[in-house]
From TrEMBL:
Pfam families the record matches: Glyco_hydro_92, Glyco_hydro_92N
Record GO terms (molecular function): hydrolase activity, acting on glycosyl bonds
Protein name: GH92 family glycosyl hydrolase
Upper taxonomic lineage: Bacteria, Bacillati, Actinomycetota, Actinomycetes, Kitasatosporales
Keyword Transcription attributed: no
Enzyme Commission code(s) on record: 3.2.1.-
Organism of origin: Streptomyces phaeochromogenes
Domain Glycosyl hydrolase family stretches: 316-799
SUPFAM superfamilies for the chain: Six-hairpin glycosidases
NCBIfam families noted in UniProt: aman2_put
Region of interest (Disordered), residue spans: 261-283
Cleavable signal peptide: 1-35
Length: 815
């Protein structure tokens, strides 16, 4: 049954009867911890708590290899389950697949679309003679090797693995280059295979050059095709959009060389190439190219390699290596520099207290959150444009960044980036604007390197840049970017009438905009989109964010227009839609003639993208009060939200797998636990968030609930553990919850730090009993953008039992 408010308070709040109250309520709030007293137990080297193997199974799709913050290079294994055209999981690595066919130079963190993206140029240390084409080894039975996790070590900036063949690789990186030590058995042939064509998605073309005199191997791969294998529109993405160049030099001469193409092996040659195509299985098996170099290890079994990469040219790759890594730098030295770089980034948030497991989960989540965006510009500022030409960064821009999983990231990751690294956020905003100008003014919702992939739905870039501006990011051409995004949202583009790529990668960024502007919703039967109801909700969020941005810019007419459009979600809310059990009022797709798409079920995904009506009905973060009113009032909405997180017997349902309830593995509903704040029952946010933190996230390879989606799920954890969460895109407001740690400092570059002081924080005190902001009583469950600008101290009183009075006054609720 659905519990009433009194029953919910008991169920959310009652612990064992023997649990004693050890903290007084609001009247006894502690004062802030002064800097003189010292922060309790904040780590000087947070990298010690990072485990890159978290998320490498259970669908997390992270990778454990060597990378630096926002790095271009990400040197990590490509695993195999016996199919050379696939991997154990998306992005190249699956913890339970303990066989690998190479160590690839580029990766994307946590994206779906198995096999993911990138995974360019796997380099394989092979023990034995090369007697056949590695491309002919379609089941990875010969030119691959098993390994044990006991022989694997992953830390920020460094990765090493010992193979059952007797070979070992030890890798460390700068941002655009890397060094490696490969060791081989002294009594067996030793070779390095450069599988230049074998990117995760395949390739259109590839090339390798071996220079015996200079002891170099260089080449490139022409590839792309992110999500190109998906059944729902992926064929549209079976295309190339970037070329990855590499140049590797060695400390010793080659004893043998050779190349291969498809099934033909050419020993002694030094030049070759050829692509694999973008199919999979038998349609691609046996195709591809590469080269190998052999070494005499009879007296010295250690091979040292230095390597640079670039998306512009081989010369760029070599310059990146020269600029970033000293000529004789060892793996240890490069790794030590990488540790220092990661420590600087991770010290952006310094937490005190908590268990070792909590710190590990927290700092690994922060690590995953700050892995992207990723550099695509060389040290000289050149980068590949979306028009296929080389460009230079804009004046005042630090670097060009890419890899924008917009539909995912706009809900949490970009807010964390703006909070902690506003300069990077501004450069990223400028980067996306640069790409849009090179793409005929079209802002793509999922940008990979310089490719518009069109993946997912909605207009997440509008929400992203509006959020950056609201959170104080200014180092980008914000007026030019606003005008461009407003134009995209108001002037129909021919692509909006195309079904190319639909439903998963529809080309139009504002599908059938003319119809949308007339009907005020995306009609399911003519929308040229993934799902009309989802598209309407996504565009409403984006338009509301544009309206908030316009208001901050002083553009009152546009602000009013976009604010009105932010309310068009109401046109797909059907008050008569029912679950058949007495609950009415759901988001539902509509046809052009105004009729509702039937049959309807709240557990159906018809009209939605990667979610059901039960989940999407809550996706109105910009107007929670309006949504509650449409449902019959805040009390009714809160009871419905209770049922979203609980089974009929009252037990929790927050791990996914139920189409009618909360799914922590995907983005449309991840804000839902925080909606209770606006409904006047913030203690339920505190209990729900704590339940998710404790049971859905954790340590070990399965420590993420699903695709990390370029740091999005990790950013959710970071915010939630701090007791903060972004209220809605386009806003600088933060919702307040119960901190997981007794103490935290959030470093705000160019502004005042945010201090979170919650001395009673522990497993037995999950509820807020009161808050002080800079020493003054704060009776609201949110803060506004002024807090972000000026910083300050939030002091939390915490309790074992819910305080059903704090932050519940109707006039002080988030709006």
């Amino acid at each position: 049954m659905v519990l009433g408010s009194t029953g919910v308070a008991r169920r959310f709040g009652r612990r064992a009867a023997a649990l004693a109250l050890t903290t007084a309520l609001a009247a006894a709030l502690p004062g802030p911890v002064s800097s003189a007293a010292g922060a309790p137990d904040t780590p000087a080297h947070p990298t010690a708590y990072v485990d890159p193997l978290i998320g490498t199974t259970n669908g997390g799709n992270t990778y454990p290899g060597a990378t630096l913050p926002y790095g271009m290079i990400a040197w990590s294994p490509t695993s195999t389950r016996g199919d050379q055209t696939s991997t154990g999981a998306a992005n190249g690595y699956e913890y339970n697949a303990t066989r690998l066919r190479g160590l690839s130079l580029t990766h994307v963190n946590g994206a779906g679309c198995n096999p993911g993206a990138a995974g360019d140029v796997p380099i394989m240390p092979f023990v034995g003679d090369v007697t056949s084409s590695p491309s002919a080894d379609t089941t990875d039975s010969v030119y691959a090797a098993n390994f044990s996790h006991a022989d694997e070590r992953a830390v920020p900036g460094r990765y090493s693995v010992g193979l059952d063949s007797g070979a070992r690789a030890d890798l460390a990186v700068s941002r655009r280059a890397g060094v490696a030590d490969f060791t081989f058995p002294a009594d067996k042939p030793a070779n390095l295979l450069f599988r230049v064509s074998n990117s995760l998605n395949g390739s259109e073309d590839a090339h390798v050059e071996i220079d015996r005199a200079k002891r170099k191997v260089s080449g490139w791969v022409l590839t792309g095709a992110f999500c190109g294998r998906r059944a729902n529109g992926g064929v549209n993405n079976r295309k190339s959009y970037y070329r990855l160049y590499f140049s590797a030099s060695f400390d010793r001469a080659f004893s043998t060389t050779g190349t291969w193409k498809d099934r033909t092996l050419s020993p002694g040659t030094t030049s070759g190439g050829g692509g694999e195509g973008y199919a999979t299985g038998a349609d691609r098996a046996g195709r591809g190219s590469g080269g190998w170099v052999g070494f005499d290890t009879s007296s010295d079994n250690d091979v040292r390699m230095r390597l640079g990469i670039s998306y512009v040219s081989r010369a760029g790759a070599e310059a990146n290596l020269r600029e970033e890594i000293a000529p004789r730098a060892s793996v240890d030295q490069v790794a030590a520099a990488g540790t220092r770089a990661w420590d600087r980034e991770l010290r952006s948030v310094r937490v005190g207290g908590g268990s070792t497991a909590q710190r590990t989960a927290f700092y690994t989540a922060l690590y995953h959150s700050l892995m992207q965006p990723n550099l695509v510009s060389d040290t000289d500022g050149r980068y590949p444009g979306m028009d296929g030409k080389a460009h230079r960064v804009e004046r005042g821009q630090g670097a060009q960044y890419s890899n924008f999983s917009g539909w995912d990231q706009y809900r949490a990751q970009i807010q964390l980036l703006a909070l902690l690294k506003p300069r990077i956020a501004g450069d990223f905003a400028q980067s996306l604007y640069n790409f849009a100008r090179q793409n005929g003014g079209v802002w793509d919702r999922w940008v990979h390197i310089n490719g518009p992939t069109h993946v997912m739905t909605g207009d997440p870039t509008a929400a992203t840049l509006a959020t950056f501006y609201a959170m104080g990011v200014r180092n980008f051409d914000y007026r030019g970017a606003f005008d461009s995004l407003a134009h995209q949202a108001t002037v129909p583009h021919p692509d909006g009438l195309s079904d190319a790529g639909c439903p998963g990668q529809c080309t139009g960024q504002r599908p059938n905009l003319a119809q949308y502007l007339t009907s005020h919703y995306a009609a399911q039967d003519v929308c040229h989109c993934w799902g009309g109801a989802a598209e309407t909700l996504e565009d409403s969020v984006a338009d509301d964010a544009l309206g908030r941005w316009a208001k901050l810019l002083g553009l009152d007419e546009q602000a009013a227009s976009f604010a009105e459009r932010g309310g068009w979600w109401r046109n797909v809310f059907n008050p008569g839609a029912t679950d058949g059990a007495g609950t009415t009022g759901y988001i539902q797709a509509r046809n052009l003639d105004g009729s509702w798409v039937t049959p309807f079920s709240p557990g159906s995904d018809r009209g939605f993208a990667q979610g059901t009506s039960a989940t999407y009905t809550w996706m109105v973060p910009q107007d929670v009060q309006g949504l509650a009113e449409a449902m019959g009032g805040r009390e009714t909405a809160a009871r419905r939200l209770d049922a979203f997180f609980h089974k009929p017997d009252g037990s929790w349902s927050v791990k996914g797998g139920d189409a009618l309830r909360y799914d922590p593995t995907n983005e449309p509903g991840i804000h839902a636990p925080w909606l209770y704040n606006a409904l006047g029952q913030p203690w339920k946010t505190q209990a729900t968030v704590r339940q998710i933190l404790d049971t859905v996230y954790g340590t070990g390879p399965a420590g993420l609930p699903g695709n990390d989606d370029l740091g999005t799920m990790s950013a959710w954890y970071v915010f939630s553990a701090l007791g903060l969460y972004p209220q809605t895109p386009g806003s600088g407001n933060l919702l307040l919850g119960a901190p997981l740690f007794p103490y935290a400092v959030v470093d705000r570059p160019g502004g005042g730090d945010i201090v979170i002081d919650a001395p009673s924080a522990d497993a037995d005190h999950p509820y807020v009993s009161g808050v002080r902001l800079n020493g003054r009583t704060h009776d609201r469950s949110w803060t506004d953008a002024r807090f972000l600008r000026g910083g300050g101290t939030l002091t939390f009183g915490l309790s074992p039992e819910p305080d059903t009075d704090w932050a519940t006054a109707p006039g002080g609720l988030p709006r």
